[in-house]
Structures are given as structure tokens and as C-alpha cells.
Amino acid sequence: MSEARWDLDGFAYLDGHLFAEDVTLERLANAVGTPTYVYSAGAIRSAYERMHAAFAPLGARLHYAVKACPNLHILGLLHELGAGMDVVSGGELERAWLAGVPMDAICFAGVGKTDAEIRAALDGTFSPLAMPERGLGRGGERHLPPGLAQRGPVGLFNVESASELARIAALADTLGTRARIAVRINPDVDAHTHTYTTTGKRENKFGVTVDHVLPLFERYADHPAVDLVGLHVHIGSPVRAIEPFEAAVDVVLGLVDRLAAHGHRVSLLDLGGGWAVDYESGEAPVPSAYAERLVPRLAERVAGQGMGILIEPGRSLVANAGVLMTRVQHTKEGQATRFVVCDAGVHTLIRPALYQAFHFIWPVAVRAEHVPLQRVAAPEMPDLATSEVVGPICESSDFLAQARPLPRVARGDLLAVFSAGAYGMAMASNINDHMRPAEVLVDGGQATVIAARQRLVDHLAPERQKRALTPAELEPCNRQDG
Ligand code: LLP
User: Residue 225: what are its φ and ψ, rounded to 5°?
Assistant: First the structure.
């Protein structure tokens, strides 16, 4: 890119026009319509390399948290770079598999795994892809797509409770396989982030109380179907301070020592995700800053005790590599403020409504005096109008920004909602029967539609499959998983 551009995370203004790498967003909008998520492949690559380099002294393996942006082609891109995958549902598991990720590079986390999901993670025979017509979890199939037969168990289960561990052990036993397992602990550490994304405090549903971990290692030490190898911790997201990570690591290492004293070796630590990013420029530590403080705590364990380290970054790999492109449909002056009504809203990006999250929003085409140099809530520029950026949904929570100074925009103008690559499309919904946006991946001058805009006909299809249940189907003792 030329020096004249504001170049941040793959997006840049050149002569007042916003580019994704070498493609203008205006041309993309004309070609694909709005609202559309646009990702920069280059930005994803460099975010991956930064994270990988930061934790290289520990030989850490990166498992991308699929939930952040689960598009198959984003998974494929990260897999090519060397990432494993962290999945939290049967759906994500099959996505990772379809993206070409081998099962042993997948770790299966999540607090509510069903029997059907556990079976699919233990044995490809039970993949929903093997028998789409029969749904999850029923055996008896004959013709498996290539690769699914004997695809083997996932590389790691992160278990969240004694109950779940018992189910995995029983199902692995029945299937004649062995599950490699890390126990997620609840370290009771405050990540100082939004309550809804805080996961490591004692009142949160996640993980096993530290005192309950030793009995699990005792109980499963010699189990034929279970290989209890590790501990896992994830305290929240995004975690902007480094101290909570340090505190969590200290709790885990204390537990490693306690287990060792009872003869149980922990050979794998999964440190989870939660690494913050710059929604506003300069607000978050860079990956190397986290690593500088964490590597010394762990280096001796890695070198001396041969411990493997795994991390599960999601947001930090994709958040700033994506923008949500939206077109202004109407503007109006309210009594106290100006409303900018867009075709994106809470249905396309729920983060502002759900977490009061900040996303920098700016017009895609601006005059020279309005070219932004960084992502800030209140840029110091002339002629800005305080605006409410809202969507079409019939709820007052349907906003993308409140009281935000913006250049004056008019009907038909395009806006870019920045830092939307993580938990944007992933949390989009069909509220008020709006279709889910399209997704485009830009790599240099090449733009590729990696998800078509949802079609109404597909959205309505399940409702057009109305059928009465037969008496046989309503027999007593129908079990959830059959
Ligand atoms: N590992 C585990 C066990 C997790 O629960 C999560 C995120 C991650 C890794 C990845 O965390 P990351 O590196 O992306 O921070 N919807 C919220 C974020 C929810 C995060 C859920 N867990 C948001 O939009 O901010």
C-alpha cells in the first residue's frame, strides 16, 4: 500500500475512499449489496503471525476459537497458517472438519456437550455429516462420505464438570476409543471485563472448582478410555489487563504442583483466549506485551517438565480484520439528536446493544479533513454532527453507536463499522425477518464472496416443512439422543 494511506489492519483511506487491501468498499457494496461483512486476509495473517511469534518461546500451539468468526473459508485460511481449532458445539466441530482441519488438531470445549456431540467428537461415524437425514447421534449408517470413517477422536476435550467427564469416559469406552482430556478449572479470578463475558469467577458456570480437580485425577488415573493430560483455564473476553492472566496462570501452576505431589503429571496447559484488541486505537496490550509477562512464569515448566502450551485466541485474530459495511437508508433530526438509520443494526452486530461495546464507525467516502488517523470515539475534526447510528429493528436497543460525532451523512451513503470481524457475523440473527449479511474476503486485489447473503426462501424453508407427528413418534420413553 502507498504511504498516503491510513493503514491499519488491512483497511485504509486513499484519497478519501476506504479500501479493504486493494479494493474499495464502494465497489464491493455495488457488487454485493449491504449489509456485508468484509474481511482482510492479510490482516488475519499478520494477526496470526503476531500471536504465534509472541508465544513461540513456549512453543505454544494456537487453536483458533471458531466462535469468533466461524466462516468455513476463514477457518481454512487459519488452518493453512498452522492453526488448530477450538470448537464449542457439534456444528463448529463439523465446520472445522469441513475446512480440512484434522481431528487431532481440534479441541472440543463447551459447558453443555450432549451425548450426540461427544460421539461425533469421538468417532466420525456419528458425525451429522454422515447421516444428514437422520440427525445427530443415531448409528447404523452404511455409506460414509470419504474421510469420516475412522476419522478418530478430537485431539482434546476440555471438560467442565465431573458429570461431563463421566459421560465422555462412558461413551469412549463403548466406542472402544480413548479421549484425551484437559479439565477446565474455575480459578475465581476477575478478568475485569463485561459481566456477560466474565467466565473465571466462582459464580460463573464455567470450569471445575480447584479443590474438585484432584479427585478427578485420582478417579480417572487408570481409566482405559480416558487420558487425563491437562488443565485448561479461560477467564473472560476481552481481558484488557495482564494481571488477571498472571493470576489465573498462578492458580493453574499451583494446582499442577498439588497434582504432582499426588503422583499426577500434567503435561498440557491450555491458557484459553481473551486477548484484547484495539477497538479504540491503543487501548489494548499487544500480544507480545501479554507474552512478556506470561512467558517467564511458564518457560521453566515447558523446558524443565516438558509441558505443552496451548492458547485459544479468537477475537485477537479476526476482530480488526473485519468491517461491517452498511448503507444509510434515512436520516432525521430528533428533538435532541440526529438519527442515522442504516440497513445494519442489532441483527447484524449485537455487540453495542448487548455489551455497550464501542465500534468505530465512519463513512466510506470522506473529504480530506475527515480522513481518520485512528479509531477514536470523539475525533477532533471540524463539522461533525452528534449522531445516533441505528438500524431498522423495532427495539430501542437497536443501535450501533450512541451520541457519536460523525461527518454529516445522507441517505445512500455507506458507513463502515470497524473491528467487527469477531463476534459480528457469528452473532447475527434473523430478528424481524431480516436476512443474514453476505461475507467477502479480500486478499490483495482479489475479493471473494465467502458467504452469500441469506435468501428468504432458505430462511422460511423449515416452516414450510410442517408435518404432524405420528402416534409412534410420540411413544413414551423417547430419549433425547436415542
Ligand atoms: N476459549 C474459550 C473457552 C472461550 O470461551 C472463548 C470465548 C475463547 C477461547 C476465545 O476468546 P477470545 O480470544 O475471542 O477473546 N461475544 C462476546 C465474546 C464471547 C467470548 C466467549 N468465549 C463479544 O462479542 O465480546
Answer: -105, 5
The DSSP secondary-structure symbol of 310 reads E
In this prediction, residue 76 carries a pLDDT of 98
| Arithmetic mean of pLDDT, 283-289 | 95
Instruction: Give the Å distance between the CA of 75 and the centre of ligand 1.
Output: 16
**CATH number, domain 41-131+147-317:** 3.20.20.10
Segment 433-462, tens digit of pLDDT: 999 999 999 999 999 999 999 999 999 999
Residue 359: CB within 6 Å of ligand 1? no
Contact between 417 and 349 under an 8 Å Cβ cutoff? The reply is yes
Q: Is the CB of 275 under 6 A from ligand 1?
A: yes
Using CB atoms within 10 Å of the CB of residue 396, give its burial: 0 to 12 exposed, 13 to 18 middle, 19+ buried: exposed
Q: Is the CB of 351 inside a 6 Å radius of any atom of ligand 1?
A: yes
Best probe residue, ligand 1, of 235, 237, 278 (max atoms within 8 Å of C-beta): 237
In this prediction, residues 125-139 reach a mean pLDDT of 63
Q: What spacing in Å lies between the alpha carbon of 54 and ligand 1's midpoint?
A: 19
In terms of CATH architecture, what is 11-40+319-462? Beta Barrel (2.40)
Catalytic residue among 107, 342, 394, 477: 394
Residue closest via CA to ligand 1's atom 9 equals 273
| CA-wise closest residue to 341 among 54, 35, 78, 38 | 35
Separation of CA 235 and ligand 1 centre (Å): 9
In the residue annotation, 342 being an active-site residue is answered as no
Residue 139 pLDDT greater than 90, yes or no: no
Instruction: Order across the sheet with 17-20: list the strands.
Output: 11-14, 17-20, 23-24
Domain spans of the chain, in order of start:
11-40+319-462, 41-131+147-317
Among 409, 284, 428, CA closest to 353: 428
Question: pLDDT (tens digit, 9 = 90+) per residue, 258-276?
Answer: 999 999 999 999 999 999 9
Judge whether 156 and 180 are in contact, CB under 8 Å: yes
C-beta of 197 in contact with ligand 1 (< 6 A): yes
Q: Is the CB of 273 under 6 A from ligand 1?
A: yes
34-67 confidence digits (pLDDT tens)? 999 999 999 999 999 999 999 999 999 999 999 9
CA 138 to chain centroid? 29
Q: What is the position in ligand 1's atom list of the atom closest to the CA of 110? A: 3
Q: Whose CA is nearest to atom 15 of ligand 1?
A: 274
Q: How far is CA 90 from CA 113, 122, 376, in A?
A: 8, 11, 38
The dihedral built from the CA positions of residue 163, 104, 313 and 319, taken in this order, carries a sign that is negative
Cell 465431573 belongs to which residue? 162
Start-to-end CA distance of the chain, whole Å, equals 57
